[in-house]
Write a structure and sequence with these properties.
The chain is α/β, with parallel strands linked by helices. The protein is built from 15 helices and 13 strands. The protein has helices at about 10, 20-30, 45-55, 70-85, 100-110, 125-135, 150-160, 180-195, 235, 250-260, 270-280, 285-305, 335-345, 375-380, 385-390; strands at about 30-35, 95, 115-120, 135-140, 165-170, 195-200, 225-230, 245-250, 310-315, 320-325, 345-350, 350, 365-370. One of its GO terms (cellular component) is cytoplasm.
Length: about 400
C-alpha cells in the first residue's frame, strides 16, 4: 500500500465544500451567485484608504504575533462600548488571520483526544474536521425550522461528564437567527453545570436587524472565565477577503489559543490590522447605517421571493435569508432544487442540508442578499417561474 493511500483521513475524505461547489457552478453557468456569503460592494472607502496608507507609509514587517497593540486596544474599546464587555487588550485579546483561524486556534487549544464537543446543526463546515483532528468527538444537536431555537431536552441529551466544549454560532449562519437571552441563559446553565468551555462564533454580531440585539455569551453571568469569543472584521466591514479575526478570552484560555495561533499563521498583515483599528473606532452611525442598508436589501429580496411564491423565513441577522420549500410540493430536495436553479435559471443558492452531518433538514435553501439592487432584481427576474414551472 502506498503512503499516499494512508493520508490523514480527517481531511483526505472530505468533499469540496458546498460553497466552493456552488460558486464553481455559478461560474460554469454564468449564474448570479446568491450562494456564497460575500457582498458585491468593494467595502467602506475610508477603511480601504486607511489600509493603503498603512501599506505605503506604515510598518510592513512582522507585527506582534498577538496583533498590533492599537488594534487590540480598539477591539477592547469596541466591545466595551457595544456590549459592556471589559477586556484587557494585552492579556485577553488576540488577532488572527480570519475567523476560521480564530476558531481553529480555540478548538485546538481546548479539545484533547476523547473529549466530547457539542455542536448545533446546521453547523459551519470547518467545525467538525478541526474537532476530529484534535481527537475530539462531536455530539450533534439538530435544530429545526422555522425557529431553530434551543431547548432543555436537546441540551440534556448531549451534555455529560465527557463534554469538554460547546461550539455556538450566534447569529446563526445559515438560519439567520439571533438568539435571545433566554436561550443563552439555558446554554450557560449547562456549561456551568458540566464545567464546559464555550467557543462562540460571533462573526455576525453587528449584522442584526429589526429589534434583535446580539448578546455575547461571554457577558452572561458565570460565563466570563469559560468563554472564547470569536469575531471577524470581514463581516463587520463587508471586507471578507481581508481575513482579520479576533479572539477574546480570559488569560488562561487565551494563552493556549495563542500558542496554537503561533504555529498556524503566526501573524496577520499589519496594514489591514491598522485599517481595522481605524474602522472599529468609527461612530455608531456607521454601524447603524450598515444594518439599515442590509435590512433594505433583505426586505427587497424577501418581498421579491414571496411575490414569486417562495415561503421565506424571516431573517433576524447575517447576510442570509432562508426559504422553506416544504409547503410547495416540489418533490425535490433542497440540494436538487439548488442544482436545478443554477443550471436552468442561472441563480446559485445553498442547500441548508449541507450544514448537517446527521439527519439533515432537506427542505430549506439559503440565499445571500448582501448584493446590489440590480443583482437582486435580476436574480428575481430569472427565478420568476422556477416554482410555477416545477409545480406545473
Amino acid at each position: 500500500m502506498s503512503k499516499s493511500s494512508s493520508l490523514n483521513k480527517v481531511f483526505a475524505d472530505l468533499p469540496v465544500t458546498i460553497f466552493e461547489a456552488m460558486s464553481q457552478a455559478a461560474r460554469d453557468n454564468a449564474a448570479i451567485n446568491l450562494g456564497q456569503g460575500f457582498p458585491d460592494d468593494p467595502g467602506p472607502e475610508d477603511i480601504r484608504r486607511a489600509a493603503a496608507d498603512a501599506s505605503l507609509n506604515g510598518y510592513n514587517q512582522y507585527p506582534s504575533m498577538m496583533g498590533l497593540p492599537e488594534l487590540r486596544q480598539a477591539i477592547a474599546t469596541h466591545y466595551g462600548h457595544w456590549h459592556g464587555l471589559r477586556l484587557d487588550p494585552m492579556s485577553e485579546v488576540m488577532v488572527t488571520s480570519g475567523g476560521t483561524e480564530a476558531l481553529t486556534s480555540a478548538i485546538l487549544a481546548v479539545v484533547q483526544p476523547g473529549d466530547e464537543v457539542v455542536c448545533f446543526q446546521p453547523v459551519y463546515d470547518s467545525y467538525l474536521p478541526i474537532i476530529r483532528q484534535a481527537g475530539g468527538i462531536p455530539r450533534l444537536v439538530r435544530l429545526e425550522p422555522p425557529h431553530w431555537r434551543l431547548n432543555e431536552d436537546m441540551l440534556k441529551s448531549v451534555f455529560n461528564s465527557k463534554t469538554k466544549a460547546v461550539l455556538f454560532n450566534n447569529p446563526l449562519n445559515p438560519s439567520a437567527v439571533v438568539y435571545p437571552r433566554e436561550d443563552l441563559e439555558l446554554l450557560a446553565r449547562y456549561c456551568q453545570e458540566f464545567d464546559v468551555i464555550a467557543i462562540c462564533d460571533e462573526v455576525w454580531e453587528h449584522v442584526t436587524f429589526d429589534e434583535h440585539k446580539h448578546i455575547p455569551l461571554i457577558t452572561i453571568p458565570g460565563m466570563r472565565e469559560r468563554t472564547i469569543k470569536v469575531g471577524s472584521a470581514g463581516k463587520i466591514f463587508s471586507l471578507t477577503g481581508w481575513k482579520i479575526g479576533f479572539v477574546c478570552a480570559a488569560p488562561p484560555l487565551l494563552r493556549v489559543a495563542a500558542k496554537v495561533h503561533q504555529f498556524l499563521t503566526f501573524t496577520t498583515a499589519p496594514n489591514l490590522q491598522a485599517a481595522v483599528a481605524y474602522g472599529l473606532g468609527k461612530s455608531d452611525e456607521y454601524f447603524l447605517s450598515m444594518r439599515k442598508d442590509l435590512t433594505r436589501s433583505r426586505d427587497r429580496l424577501t418581498k421579491g421571493l414571496e411575490s414569486l411564491g417562495f415561503p421565506v423565513l424571516k431573517s433576524q441577522g447575517t447576510y442570509f435569508l432562508t426559504v422553506d420549500l416544504s409547503p410547495l410540493g416540489l418533490n425535490e430536495s433542497d440540494a436538487e432544487f439548488c442544482w436545478r436553479i443554477v443550471r436552468d435559471y442561472k441563480v446559485a443558492a445553498i442547500p441548508v442540508s449541507a450544514f448537517y452531518e446527521q439527519d439533515p433538514v432537506t427542505s430549506v435553501v439559503r440565499f445571500c442578499f448582501a448584493k446590489k439592487d440590480e443583482t437582486l432584481d435580476t436574480a428575481l427576474e430569472r427565478l420568476s417561474d422556477a416554482v410555477r414551472r416545477r409545480k406545473g
